[in-house]
Specification:
Blueprint lengths: L1 H7 L6 H4 L7 E8 L7 E7 L9 E5 L13 H10 L4 E5 L13 H15 L1 H4 L5 E6 L1 H12 L6 E7 L8 H4 L12 H4 L8 H6 L13 E6 L8 H12 L4 E6 L9 H14 L1
Helix pairs in contact: 4-6
């Protein structure tokens, strides 16, 4: 099993939690459609021995600046989920990509809702319990938070993991600074042609921090101190808001990392902390 893990995902130190577990067989339902758009597809990983009373669902949401990326980039997280939670189902979803003419907000939140509705409607056939943890990277982390805080009125989302995703698009580091000016080139894929000065209410609406309430799901976040896209103020602002509302949260900042984690020690720490939090 250790050799197989190293072949599948050599850059991640997965062995610390997989060594002693009995791993069930796995069925994979690939490229299932959950909508009429070709980008509305998902993979569902179904381990053997599932039970509708305990087998919850981990949903993976890829990054790509709301305009690019695909579910295949989240394969490593699917491997982690399978070995960390061998009785949980895993959904690795694609979603409709945004452009300035057809922005990601709100259609990408609608796609997450459709995925959760699909899984919930088929809970008996899938043999799962329709309670969800959302794991998102970069833009996917942003979408996971925004969905969990502002859309999930039925409180099906029990936990959120944000990996280097922005939390506040009204942050002065974005609106009044040149250091993170690169973000101006990708924001239209989320909100369209309007700028912050033209419509600050829209930028607040797509900022997860403004939707945090006392009912928001527990949240764990990971950031890189050298990230050229995500200022550390994004971490502290969200942490303060979650604390203010009494929401369970954990934050980790890696001093030597940027927009993603390349150091194997940091990767191992990330997966370990995430496993414990979930």
């Amino acid at each position: 099993m250790e050799v197989l893990l190293q072949i599948l995902f050599p850059q991640i130190s997965l062995l610390f939690w997989a060594n002693s577990q009995e791993i069930p067989p796995l069925a994979i339902l690939s490229n299932l459609s959950y909508g009429s758009d070709p980008q509305q597809i998902m993979d569902i990983y179904l381990p053997g021995g599932r039970d509708t009373t305990v087998s919850k669902v981990v949903v993976l949401i890829h990054g790509g600046a709301w305009s690019a990326g695909n579910k295949e980039s989240m394969f490593g997280y699917a491997v982690w989920s399978y070995f960390a939670f061998p009785r949980y189902a895993i959904v690795n979803m694609g979603y409709r990509l945004g452009t300035a003419d057809s922005p990601g907000f709100p259609k990408q939140l609608e796609d997450i809702k459709l995925v959760l509705q699909y899984v919930t409607a088929n809970q008996s056939a899938l043999k799962i319990k329709p309670e969800f943890a959302l794991v998102g990277s970069s833009a996917g982390g942003h979408l996971a938070m925004l969905y969990g805080y502002s859309v999930d009125k039925s409180q099906q989302v029990n936990a959120i993991c944000n990996i280097v995703g922005p939390t506040d698009l009204t942050d002065p580091e974005y609106t009044n600074s040149t250091k993170y000016q690169v973000i101006e080139g990708v924001i239209p894929a989320l909100v369209g042609y309007e700028t912050f000065k033209q419509n600050p209410g829209l930028f607040a609406a797509v900022s997860p921090v403004y939707s945090v309430t006392r009912q928001s799901p527990p949240t764990i976040s990971f950031f890189g101190e050298k990230d050229p896209l995500i200022p550390l103020s994004q971490a502290t602002t969200l942490e303060d808001k979650l604390d203010e509302n009494g929401v369970i949260n954990k934050f980790y900042i890696y001093p030597d990392e940027g927009h993603g984690f390349a150091n194997p020690t940091n990767q191992a720490h990330f997966f370990k902390k995430l496993s414990w939090f979930f």
